[in-house]
Amino acid sequence: MLASHTETLALREQFETPAQQKEASSLGMWIFLVTEVMFFSGMFLAYTVYRAAFSQVFSVASNTLNVVIGAVNTSVLICSSFTMVLAVHAAQIGSRKLLILFLILTMLLGGVFLGVKAYEWNQKFEEHHVPGPTFHLDGTTQQGQAQLFFSLYFAMTGVHALHMVVGVGILLTLLIQAFAGRYTAEYNTPIDIAGLYWHFVDIVWIFLFPLLYLIGRHHH
Amino acid sequence: MITEAVQERETYLNASYGLKSWLLTKDHKRIGLLYLGTITFFFFLGGIFATLIRLELLTPKGDLVSADIYNKLFTLHGVIMIFFFLIPSIPATLGNFFLPMMIGAKDLAFPRINLLSWYLLVIGGCFGIYAMLAGGVDTGWTFYVPYSSTYSNTYVVATGLGIFIAGFSSILTGLNFIVTVHRMRAPGMTWFRMPLFVWANYATALIQVLGTPVLAITLVLLICERSLHIGIFDPARGGDPILFQHLFWFYSHPAVYIMVLPGLGVVSELVSTFSKKPIFGYKFVAFSSVAIAVLGFLVWGHHMFVSGQSVYAGLAFSFLSYFVAIPSAIKVFNWTATLHKGSISYATPMLYAFGFIGLFTIGGLTGLFLACLGVDIHVHDTYFVVAHFHYIMVGGALMAYLGGLHYWWPKMTGRMYPEGFAKLSALTIYLGFNLTFFPQFILGYLGMPRRYWTYPDEFQVLHVMSTAGASVLAVGYVMPLIYFIWSLRYGEIAGPNPWGATGLEWKTASPPPAHNFDETPVVTTEAYDYAALEAANVG
Amino acid sequence: MHEHIDSIKTYAVVFVALLFLTWTTTFVATIDLGPFNVVVALAIAVVKMMLVVLFFMHLRHSTILMKVVIGGGLMWLGILLLFSLADFGTRGWLPVPGK
Amino acid sequence: MGTELPLFPVEASTVAPQVDHLFFFLLAVAAFFTAAIFVTIFYFAIRYRRRSESEMPVPVHGVMALEITWSVIPFGLTMVMFAWGASVFFRASRPPDGAQQIYVVGKRWMWKLQHMEGQREINELHIPVGRPVKLTMTSEDVIHSFFVPAFRTKADVLPGRYTTTWFQPTKVGKYHLFCAQYCGTKHSAMIGWIYVMEPQDYQTWLSGGATGSLASTGEKLFQDLACSNCHHLNDQGRCPNLRNVFGSNVLLSDGRTIKADEGYIRESILNPSAKIVAGYQPIMPTFQGLVTEEGVLQLIEYIKSLTPKPVPAAPGTTTAVSPRKISKQ
Ligand code: HEA
Ligand code: HEA
Ligand code: CUA
Ligand SMILES: [Cu+2]
Fold first, then answer.
1. For the packed helices A18-53 and B156-183, what is the interaxial angle rounded to 10 degrees?
2. Separation between Cα atoms, residue A5 and residue A184, nearest integer Å
3. Is the residue at D221 inside a domain?
4. Mean pLDDT, residues C54-61
5. Do A135 and A154 meet the contact criterion of CB atoms below 8 Å apart?
6. How far is A57 from chain D (nearest CA, A)?
7. Shared-domain flag, residues D172 and D223
8. What's the pLDDT score for residue D309?
9. Nearest CA to ligand 3 atom 1
10. Any chain D CB within 8 A of the CB of B465?
11. CA nearest B209 in C: which residue?
């Protein structure tokens, strides 16, 4: 009874077969991720241009970020990617319990990441590292160029965090549906696709971490 | 009796009734019509701004509107025509309606996303209209910093948000088309059996997906810069305004191919159907669309030859610009060759196709002048550029759109438009168009800068000619509006295939049933196989 | 389409590798390698990306089409960076201000 | 009320005929292809018009030789366009040595121009016929563009940076100057005139009005702003000697060497700590906000005058790092 219900839910009318539908969905998601790459690309370009021009100041500014926190947060995100892939795995083998467990874990880890991020942002406000009239960075006379670094820092981590928030929202929806028993070993495309998204957001951070926190620890 | 038969048959139009059945529809055909209504509205809105621009320029003095209003007029004209009319025009209306049918699919891969795209366009449009009513925006459609970020005191943020949202509509349409073409083709519909319109929309979709996100982030950065003063492009803090131009044109040059590629696709359909011949060099025409899409991403710096960009970058961008011209040339030559020994009909859509080929050629060839470094230092930001792009976008893309609309009108509505009236309007548009924009080439070479509210006296005669042409043009555009609406009720009933065309969309009833085909078609012939069509009709 | 299910062990290995690389990149940043700090940091990031894409996102079991899609996306990112930097990098080659 | 109908702009600079020749070449190619396509289409459309609905033309799928021909020939033509265009462009980009220097500041919505001899003009520029003129330009606010149609020349004028354009007028007369980059409300009023004069008329014009050469105004400013308190024109003190700085290669404290051009001097004044000369402390205060763009240009002209001509090295040759800097190490 339930199975046949999910069956009809699963295959939308424009498709001929479930395989066609699944392929279409993951192709759609991959293409969407390409658009995301291009979306971030504008900020990466700005970063590259200004870092090349003002490498000394960028290095001073980058040194004010806390590497330990950054590294820990990177690890948190990697853990969340791991639990996400386990959730996909659980869905594939049809284990509802594990699926729910791992979805919850992933969301929790995502939440931890965002919490740490919020803490870091708050630090920036306290240290006057937020671009604007009150901005001040010690160790350089180039306050304007230093602001560029922090503008990029906020833009990049901000857009990334926004993606995390959206990701957590998606996982929440999936979780509710998983509770309702919507996903089975036969039909779990949405979990798969959400996984792709989550991993993508992780990858963005994998680049942001060295670019913002690490590069320029040593500058002459 | 025929009428009765038509009325009783179930079509996508009478499958369900009521506003809700339209606003919540997932049928690509209905969504196509929703788009049609939306962009028609925006076209006339943009057209009213154009009319006011032309009236102001009738005299050298600024005597109709104030300088600030004039600046808002051309900005809103450009923004609306580009982002809310031409970019969605062919893909979202004709493409939406016919792309799935032409490959024998029941719908697009993601119908709900398709509906979402339309809502995004409407929401984006609402932001645009809000900006317009609240006081307008005066940055030009190019939004160059630091003017837009710091100096303008108009509604830049609202407009930027509107374009940002409309951009997502465009991205999602593109995404939908790509997946549909890859995954939804009917059995037997191989890549090289696809109609060229599908190829063109596929190539367009690639640009939409790869380019639009960069515009989106550029607008986000601009909005942040303007509202939070983060300094990304601020020279006082070491920021570089030319970085903005790179980001903007990385999207906006390819975007011109978003605007023209679908038109090129329509013309391929028209030329074939109305000469009853397969397109000469099908594969070349098909690949040239993809080539244009790809090469189009390598030339954006040709908008920045005198901007303070390095001369060496200018050199590279000029060089590469000429590469895009070749696939365009290939198309024009192949269409011409297709006509050879054809059976050429002068139906209205074909007149538009002829008009398109001529005007696109002129517009494209003048693009070569602009891509030429030595000439561009003189004509950059003059009316020469204005003439160039109107030749391609109005003479080209818009003509193709109108041609396609006439061609598929019977399929969409089940009724014919009045042929005589339509021919008259096509002719009016053609004459009015040339009178409006040809003098602008001369003006441009004389040195008349664009975005000028007032101008030296000696340019007046040419401006008067241009304004006169624009009035003729306006009449030409209002005519289809009238007779298309008229035909909905009084037009002659159209059969399933009034033109003797070969595409799958003509193999189903007019208007089509909600699921397009009564049974999934199986394709056994190449595209444009008129002999097979005839054999089937006889047999 | 045949669905390929990876073992949890594979995932665990990849997971550990990712954590290890995170630690490595952080550690290497404390050593002064001159210009190579940048190279190493980005190289490690690329390796991590590949691990995530190939294993967690199952690209290694995906069709060629998906690989083309990803490759294309990265190429376009490259186009944007390369051509823009071609401008910034050649400014001042001609000894005329602003050319 | 204008009644004349001009069709072609006057040619009044050495570059203008070059641009026009190129333009005519392009026009010829464009006219040829346009005509060819129009004629062929009309001919086919009439010759092969549909005579009956049952006609069935023979399908032709394409001819490889034709495809190649009509790809290769246009490609060849476009490469000529590119090469020719690039050569004109380069000639139009590099001012000849010894060009007369004029400084331009764009500001919403006017052009402020300064001559070396000290004359300052607004929205007007007087220059002698036959001599190359080089403009060094910057903007106080948004982007503008300096456009003289009769000279076929145009260059954007950017805030925070110097850009250059040049021309050599060939005809005496009065020519339009336009702002070609949209800059707000009165963009279309940011216009003016270029007066090209006979050399003797120009001399007469020069002799009137000026309060002293640009360099001397700069020198005065140098005193007024107290630059001279630190910068003595000898190698004493904690500040670099500004003699012979312009055009030299300066060694910076971070090890880089940089060519001291207008942009560098401007940055040294407005953002001195961005680049520190090797061997000195970053004690120079910023003059951002204390001196206008025009003032900066005057100072630059003064500092330039401290370098005897002809120093701006010919492109390509490397000037040795000035020994003055090295001795200071
Ligand atoms: C649909 C829109 C569209 C299209 C398709 C094009 C197509 C082309 N455009 Fe255009 N362009 C615009 C819309 C478009 N453009 C707009 C809106 C602007 C102004 C933006 C702004 O600043 O507001 C602009 C500005 C613009 C500039 C910048 C000018 C300036 O600001 O100084 C340049 C410079 O290179 C240029 C070049 C070209 C070229 C080389 C092509 C080529 O793709 C054309 C190729 C076509 C052909 C060549 C014709 C067919 C070929 C033949 C008939 C055979 C013979 C061929 C040969 C001999 C090669 N365009
Ligand atoms: C798809 C794109 C598109 C289209 C279709 C058009 C259509 C037209 N455009 Fe425009 N145009 C642009 C895109 C387009 N334009 C862009 C991008 C710019 C640059 C903006 C910028 O600089 O930022 C521009 C700029 C531009 C200028 C230069 C302004 C300047 O630089 O100062 C001019 C001047 O003549 C002009 C004219 C026209 C005219 C006469 C039409 C005609 O074809 C329009 C004809 C249509 C109608 C006339 C409407 C139908 C008739 C009615 C609704 C009748 C009722 C009317 C009344 C009651 C008033 N356009
Ligand atoms: Cu200054 Cu336009
Ligand atoms: Cu372009």
1. 140
2. 12
3. yes
4. 92
5. no
6. 9
7. no
8. 67
9. D144
10. no
11. C73
Q: How far apart are the first and last CA of chain A?
A: 71
Q: The CATH number of the domain where D204 resides is what?
A: 2.60.40.420
Task: Judge whether B211 and B249 are in contact, CB under 8 Å.
Answer: no
D232 and D196 within one domain = no
A193 close to A25: Cβ distance less than 8 angstroms: yes
pLDDT at B160: 97
* CA atoms of B523 and B514, how far apart (whole Å): 21
D25 part of a folded domain: yes
In tens, the pLDDT along A105-163 reads 999 999 999 999 999 999 999 999 998 888 988 888 888 899 999 999 999 999 999 99
Q: Same domain, yes or no, for D99 and D173?
A: yes
| Neighbouring subunits of B (3+ Cβ pairs under 8 A) | A, C, D
Nearest to residue B207, comparing CAs of D172, A142, C72, D219? C72
D180 Cβ inside 6 Å of ligand 1: no
CATH number for the domain including D252? 1.10.760.10
At D212 the pLDDT is 79
SS3 content of chain D, % helix, strand, coil (to 5): 40, 20, 40
In a domain, D83, yes or no: yes
From the CB of residue B2, how many other CB atoms can be counted at a distance below 10 Å? 8
CA–CA separation, B243 vs D5, rounded Å? 41
Is D85's Cβ below 8 Å from some Cβ in B?
yes
Range of the domain at D25: 9-44+66-211
Confidence of residue C98 (pLDDT cuts 50, 70, 90): confident
Nearest to D259 by CA among D187, D190, D320: D320
Pick from A188, A186, A206, A209: nearest CA to A198: A206
For residues D288 and D168, state if they share a domain. Answer: no
- Contacts for B205 with CB less than 8 Å, ≥ 6 apart: B91, B173, B174, B175, B176, B177, B178, B181
Question: What's the confidence (pLDDT) of residue A1?
Answer: 33
* Domain shared by D223 and D200, yes or no: no
Average pLDDT for runs of 10 along chain D of length 329: 83 96 97 97 96 89 92 96 96 91 94 90 94 95 96 96 95 96 96 95 83 85 87 79 88 86 89 85 85 89 81 43 38
The answer to whether B431 contacts chain C (CB < 8 Å) is no
Domains in chain A: boundaries: 18-219
Q: Residues with Cβ < 8 Å from B147, sequence gap 6 or more?
A: B139, D142, D143, D182, D183, D184
Q: How many CB atoms lie within 10 A of CB D200?
A: 9
Are residues D131 and D275 located together in one domain of the fold?
no
**Cβ contacts (< 8 Å) between A144 and chain D: which residues?**
271
Distance, CA of D304 to CA of D317 (rounded, Å): 19
Co-location of D97 and D230 in the same domain: no
Q: Which of B394, B434, B471 to mutate to test the pocket of ligand 2 (most atoms within 8 A of CB)?
A: B394
Count: domains in chain D: 2
Judged on CB neighbours under 10 Å (0-12, 13-18, 19+), B261 is: buried
Superfamily (CATH H level) for A18-219: Cytochrome c oxidase, subunit III, four-helix bundle (1.20.120.80)
Residue D141 alpha carbon to ligand 2 centre in Å: 29
Q: Which chains touch C (3 or more CB pairs under 8 A)?
A: A, B, D
Answer whether residue D247 is part of any domain: yes
Give, as one character, the DSSP assignment of residue D292: -
Q: B365 in ligand 1 pocket by Cβ < 6 Å?
A: yes
Q: Are residues D25 and D140 in the same domain?
A: yes
Alpha helices for chain D (secondary structure H): 15-47, 64-93, 199-207, 214-224, 227-230, 262-270, 293-305, 323-328
Ligand 3 site residues (CB inside 6 A) read: D 106, 109, 144, 179, 181-183, 187, 190
Atom of ligand 3 nearest to the CA of D188: 2
d(CA C98, nearest CA chain B) in Å: 5
Hey, what domains does chain B have and what are their CATH numbers? 25-538 (1.20.210.10)
